[in-house]
Amino acid sequence: LNVERGELRRKPMRFKHIREPFNALRWNFTKLHDKEIMLYLRCEDRPITNDQLDRHVIAVNASPLERDHSLIIPSINKCLPQVLTPTAIRIATDIMLLVADESFNILFNSLLGQASVNHLHMHCLYWPYESDLINRRFEPLNDLTDVYIIEPPNWLCSAFAFQLTSMHDYDSFRSNLSRCVQFLTEQNQAHNVFITRAQPIRTSGPVQEEDRSRTRPQYVTAYVFPRVNASGAKPPTNFNPAANELAGCLTSYTIRFFESASEQSAVRIIEEEALLESSVFQKLALDFSDILSNRPPGTSHCSQNHLLEIRTEDCQFRVL
Asked: Where's the GDPGP1-like C-terminal domain (predicted)?
């Protein structure tokens, strides 16, 4: 329950496209006061960017979801629009590796995906409950071994998953995640990103399996949720399904909803406001797998249709 978040949050802006140019006349993070900037980020041995004038900051969130909820603003001086960049993903990955607390998460909401400000930023916060998404069974994406997907009914909504299991995969993890959000942006598909620590992704066994003994390693894991495009973040009534909510971490903005909410009512809101049709996600997933495999987009989709035709003919043959 966070009534103040609903009442004090800055009035959401409305957007028409996932990639809108930065508008200096609208509210942006260059208007932050010095006292709202908590620290500047830099890496001495591997500079975050080649531009020595770049300033990457962590700033106070004026209407936090939870205690210590802050904003990560990459290249604040460049006034970039709210499109996740490789630099932002590098910063998010490095911060996740630096923070040992398993309750620490980093979130990103695109335009048309509940972002309220068109100035590149991510959210970071400690959440008191872990997402049940980390306990779910996934499927490999097509013929790839390091990209996974999950769909209803195994989870509330469809998602891609990427996991950093060793520093040897540091570059490929960031590259795959960058290419995923770039692909969705090019498709004008709204999306939310939830980065956390999770047990090794499973592709077999039960749909849900908790690590109650806490013996399994916890890896930096990114979940990307393609979602229905929304014209802008609406004024909160019950809750707005953004990155945290699609990962199963809900915040209620009203006492009434908090006292009456059920799993069914929360799922219904997500289905109505965020859930992509299965056919839309499947096409996105297959096209993205083609891109990662350096195939023309649509190749896997045609192969899947051909396989379906073969299976249909086989069924007809058996019936005859």
From this structure: 147-291
